[in-house]
Amino acid sequence: MNRRRLLTIPAWLMATAACSGLPGAHGAGQPGYTVSMGQLEAALARRFPARYPVGGLLNVNLLTPSLRLLPELNRLGTGLVVETTGPALGRSYSGLFDLDFALRYEARDRTLRAHRLRVNSLHFPDLPPGQAALLNAYVPALAEQALNDTVLHTLSPQDLALPEAMGLQPGSITVTPKGLAVSFVPAAPR
Predict the structure, then answer these.
(1) Are 58 and 133 contacting, i.e. CB atoms less than 8 angstroms apart?
(2) pLDDT classification of 127: cutoffs 50, 70, 90
(3) How far are the Cα atoms of 5, 54, 59, 97, 134 from residue 87, in angstroms, in the given order?
(4) How are beta strands 179-186 and 168-175 bridged, if at all?
(5) Between 20 and 30 A from 106 (CA), which of 32, 51, 124, 169?
């Protein structure tokens, strides 16, 4: 009789209870996966520095960004050092570009990606106003091109083997003071 009752418990409920012991489990009985700040920084460093020529008039170099966790906003922030040169400027200038972004999971390739970029500021302290307007027109689009949809972490098949066997898939991504916490939720029926 007890075996029959056990068979009627939904599979996802059993999977959630079983996964609560997974490394990186989040909260009471909630399975999860964690990504450290070091892992995020290493992934970002592989994409930079990035160089962008703009119509023979301007060269924009985006150096390796500094990453910061913004748990209160559930976003990541970054400061990019921007170096610019070219005939339109007359000499080279350095500045700082600050932005933040949310994260999303891409099931197709098991990646955590940057999205919904928000520009906070672009500051070139030594740049004359006319040239600043030129950079303000181009640099935000280049930074978005460089960072939007950037892969910040890839979950391996081994990371997902047990959760998938239990009918779970990655759900919400939460920015914490130590990194990212990815929760697992029941997989949608196919």
Answers:
(1) no
(2) confident
(3) 77, 11, 9, 22, 12
(4) antiparallel
(5) 51
